[in-house]
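the three lines:
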Amino acid sequence: MTRRFLSLAAAAMLIAAACQAQATPTVGPTATPTAPPAATPTAPPATATPEPTPAGPTPIASIGAGEGELNIIIWPGYAEEGLNEPAYDWIHPFETETGCQVTTKEAATSDEMVQLLRQGGGTVYDGLSASGDASNRLIEGGDLAAVDPSIFPDFNDIWPPLQSPAHNTVDGVHYGVSHGWGANLLMWNTDVVTTAPDSWSVVFDANSPYKGKVTAYDSPIYIADAALYLSFARPDLGITDPYELTQAQLDASVEILKDQKTVVGKYWSYYGDQITDFENGDSVLGTTWPYQVTVLKGEEVPIEAGLPREGATGWADSWMMSANAKHPNCMLMWMAWMITPETQQQVAEYFGEAPANIKACDLIETSPGPWGYQGFCADQHASDPDYAARIKFWKTPSTDCGDARGKTCTDYSVWTQKWAEIKG
Amino acid sequence: MGAHAGRIVLRLAAGGVLVFLYIPLAIIVLYAFNDAKSQSWPIEAFSLRWFGVALGNAKVRDAFLLSFQAALGATTIALLLGSAAAFAVHRFRFFGRDTISFLVVLPLALPGIVTGMALNSAINFGIERGGPSFGLITIIVGHATFCIVVVYNNVIARLRRIPRSMEEASMDLGADSWQTFRYVTLPAIATALVAGGLLAFALSWDEIIVTTFTAGTDETLPVWIFSNFRLPNFRPVVNVVALFLILLSAIPVYAAARLTGGSGQVGTR
Amino acid sequence: MSAATSAGPGGTLTGLRRGVASALHRRPRLQLGLLLTPPLAWLGVIYLGSLAVLFLSAFWRLDPDTTQIVQEPSLVNFETLANTEVYRVIALRTIGIAAAVTITDAALAFPLAYYMARVASPRVRNLLFIAVLMPLWSSYLVRVYSWRIILSEEGPLNWLLGLVGLSGPGFGEISIWLVFSYIWLPYMILPVYAGLERIPASLLEASGDLGAHGLTTLRRVVVPLAFPAIVAGSIFTFSLTLGDYITPQLVSSTQFIGNVVYSNVGVAGNLPFAAAFATVPVMVMAVYLIGARRLGAFEAL
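prediction for all of em together
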């Protein structure tokens, strides 16, 4: 054991030696990049043309034989094998039917999903369940395979607004199939927060009585939650879309998030952390996904959740395939599998979201699973366009405001930096 | 204040630090026997039921196996490369000799995240050129990189203590260089190899940061713990696994205590 | 001797081995090459190569629209680092907590190490030695996990403090300081113990004979002599705290340098910025080590 620190000490000593010896040019390696590496070598920098698939990608139009394996990036709860609740298992039946062994990798944020999908040049993972703020970044980056949706037998049963939405279909080319959608809810501990809040104002109150027990989602995209709230609380700012913010609108949102920081105890990005924090009483109020609500209610933690009057941010997710997938056929089979009414019922009940395939609702009505019930789809507003309109689905902010304001909006890299500032 | 009073204060302070060191471990041991899934204190009922659940959890067994394979692989490579480097530095004079010790120690001296990022980029670079994808092999590569140093340090310290005359005597008596290595050098460095190997194994076994960057979808035991101790349904299983890990740590501690003869050699090389 | 002449596969194998051995013995350069090539290839080419590319990438940048890396050399990441206040705050916080942890550990380690080295009987000393090693060998994550239980709202600490009407620190900078101090404490105890053990007993006796009080001896003789060992231990407590991101993430929402680096590389895919920020702890450690070397910490190991 003593050796462990001895070796570290030796390391220390050697670094010190190396630093001192810097004056004399040694051939040996230097630890610290003191001198900037002499720019790029002689070869002219190949000015980053991240070669997307050539213009007008040909959509994949058939599913071949499976490769026996499938690696996918998922939101927690999107691919279950019955470990949490034996009734909810749609991995094993898929494996039996297709012979594709499924390995899943959970991601906590859309950013993490993008980063993971690009590992190994897109060869490590075959596909993902992307939200709108990841999907368009990936389509633009040429990371996804174009797919002809008619190869999925259940495609026509998908709720029409979700068949070719902007977050998975660009210029008429499909890059994925819709999975489901829902809203980021406001959750509170009913023992502590005794009057049910109906506005997001409670989480942005700098004088909150719940100081130190408020929680928020740890991702730059959460800035949109503040912007959405401001679009009601500060109409003078003229926020029309929480993802299309001018510098002034962004600054105002960042301002209330900095105020919020003074009452936040812990931010969450990993859903398990939020579950633990609500269970232990470390958090009592804040934004959440329906999945945590379901789990916490199952654990009989006294919580309640709802959609505040301002509406909410939300997600509409799609299963999409990597352009360089090593197991493309298994991925396509998985996409087909995920939109069958039976699987859609399981996911919707398990995660607590509206299924994309409306036929799943009939199944839930006639034979609900342990976490489902009659009227589930009505509660989720599964085919209610008015409700869907109140939800601002995640998308990637870009300089292009998408309206008359032109290119005056703030892009996601600015949001990312602002988020680091907010967290301090 | 008299010497006697001073001694009592010292005793109390030392005892206090010892208690501080052990309370968190005791808490883990207690929670492994917690009947409830919740973590609230005080524990209301004790049971052994989670031991069975933990044993039956296939993911835990897979993670355990993967950790074991990774540690074994990394240790093997570290033993080979670490002792090769130690012999080279000890036996020969060559250009850049002084930088070898520095090079070897760098992966452990830099923050884990730096080593992790560097290896992750390298693996990504390799994959696009037909190299191995994320999995057992890349985990072993990552762990071996920072394990080499512990073997190197142990072996070179021992080599410096073996009188050169022993090997010369062996050669004078007619042994060839292989026999000299086999019957003189190897026995002399055997305990150093064991100590270095043990350390390398332990470093690999406990590693999380570098693993995060090199494992892909595969889960070693620390990675499994990291993602599961925040989930209510798996927390009791994590408690049991944690207890198990604490018990396992007695093996290397015992071996280390034996190898160093207790206190005598701390800090000496 | 007979092995070489006897027939059979065993014999040829032994003969072959001896042949190779003596051939190698006659060619020391070849022997050196065989010994040195594998570790050099591994560490010198693969590891150093990827490290070099990593730090080179600090001079690249991320295209905000496609989130792809653009390989044009620029100082944009370093400019962002220098001009954004929050990164300065995070760097200073990280360094500050690392320093606080180091001081705390030195204060905690000293009495136990002194007791082990100068008071305890050999048997007790051996037991204490094992007792210090045990927590060091137990899994890092397990120990952090335990502190999460201890510090949580309904955890043991709040329960205990609640008996006297107080409440614990919750999850913030205090909890980070506490947990780091705990995790790295053995790394301080061991070198300090080794340093104290090396002080000749005669020195302490001489101090007493010359009329120095116990405390005076401690202050004027023991601490100065043990100081290099404390600095040696501080290298671990300081550098390990500086580079960590797991503990801050698990016991607080406070950002360390490592957290920003991780969220840039592991989440946002902004490797260039992550690499740029990662140079900060590397630089700080280099300065720290040069200072430690001046204080004689390396001779104390």
